[in-house]
Amino acid sequence: MKVARNVKVKNSLGLHTRPAASIVRLLQSFKSAVTFTCKNETINARSIMSILMLAARKNTQITITAEGSDAEALVDRLVRAFDNEFGEG
Amino acid sequence: MYTVQEFYDNHKKELSLALEAGGEGLDRRIRKPEAHRPGLSLTGEMRRFETARLIIIGRHELDFLRKFDTLTCKTRLSEILTPLTPAVIVARGRIPPKELVELCEKQQLPLFRSPERATKLLSRVAFLLLEEFAPTTTLHGTLVEIFGVGVLIQGDSSVGKSEAALGLIEKGHRLISDDVVKVKKNEHFQLVGSGPEITRHLMEIRGIGIVNVAHLYGAVCVRPNKVIDLVVKLEEWDSQHFYDRVGLEQKYIDFLDTSIPYHLVPLKPGRDIVLLLETIALNHRLREMGYNSAREFNAKLIEAISKREPKRLRRRIAK
Question: Which residues from chain B sit within 8 angstroms of residue A53, using beta carbons?
């Protein structure tokens, strides 16, 4: 199953090291393959370095694409994490 | 979409560009990685004239234009300055003729001035544009230089790419980029890998975190970019899979329509991955020098077999 959804970076500092780490940690419990697409760049969301490379600031649009058996739940969980500003709010 | 603004921002220093007129047109698109000295087109010979090229006007053209009155000069110029023309550069720091300035202002076409000679500008601009237009992609993997061979280590997350790179750095090899590699095809159809600016020389090691290897091991252990000569894919040992045991056939993998020699290396506790990677790189160098260990050995073997046959036959006959 393939799921794609758009999210916006909401926390004021953007996707810095701490949110990137929490994304990677969150993904550990899922099996699906996940990518982020941002500014014409598609990266593996399980890699901290790749997420950091995006240097996504506040209000950047990111497309999450997940493929695999638990894709739906994974995307839900990720969107919630983005919405709640990775607990930084 | 590549605009004149981007070109100006990226290369104004190198080409010493100064904007003279037509600043509103900086959002014009550069459609082709080509630059052109109008020369013949200024005489009115407009057949086969390519409209989408960046125009470079040198001494020669300026002297020629001076022969005309304002009206003719304008008509000739307006023929070569089309809506598709991205920009005009006047070479040798000459002051552009007022007809050119007026036309550029009117058409909102960026007009630059540069102190360089037109010939140099022409080759430099063409080269820079070709580079900007080169196909690029982003790959997941770690790029290292081992004994001068650019090796891209790929494999699933947590298979040990970064650890392998760390081991290699410790032995005096170099890191180009960890985890994310930006790849560009150069004019020789080689793939040049480099690290994204922001994560340059950084590595993420499970259990340690993010480390800067340039700071830890010094400037000698890093490099900004490197041609990718080899791709090594690391994977967990799969007992069902038959791994290459002789190395007679070279496998290839394609990126940006370029084939690169490829090795699949299985990992198992106790296999020294650093040593394996060094051996693969050395073997690649040997091959580049014209010596293929596996093939050479096989040739020797075949020769030995064919020599021995008659002897055995003889013995059999003697019996």
Answer: 180, 196, 198-199
Helix (H) or strand (E) holding A36: strand A33-38
Clarify whether B140 is annotated catalytic: yes
Alpha-carbon gap, residue B161 to B180, rounded angstroms: 12
What pLDDT is stored for residue B156 in this prediction?
A: 83
Find chain B residues with C-beta within 8 A of A55's C-beta: 198
Closest-CA distance of chain B to residue A30, Å: 13
For the domain that residue A10 is a member of, what is the CATH number? 3.30.1340.10
Residue A56 belongs to what domain range?
A: 2-87
Those residues of chain B that have pLDDT short of 50 are none
Which structural domains are found in chain B, ordered by start? 4-133 (3.40.1390.20), 136-288 (3.40.50.300)
Is A53 close to B180, i.e. CB distance below 8 A? Answer: yes
Write out chain A residues lying below 8 Å of B140, CB-based. 43-44, 47, 50
Q: Three-class SS string for B175-206? A: EEECCEEEEEECCCCCEEEECCHHHCCEEEEC
Packed helices A17-27 and A71-83: angle between N→C axes, nearest 10 degrees = 160
Is the complex ipTM higher than 0.90?
no
The pLDDT tens digits for B215-245 are 999 999 999 999 999 999 999 888 888 888 8
Whether residue A13 is predicted with pLDDT greater than 80 in this model: the reply is: yes
pLDDT at B313: 60
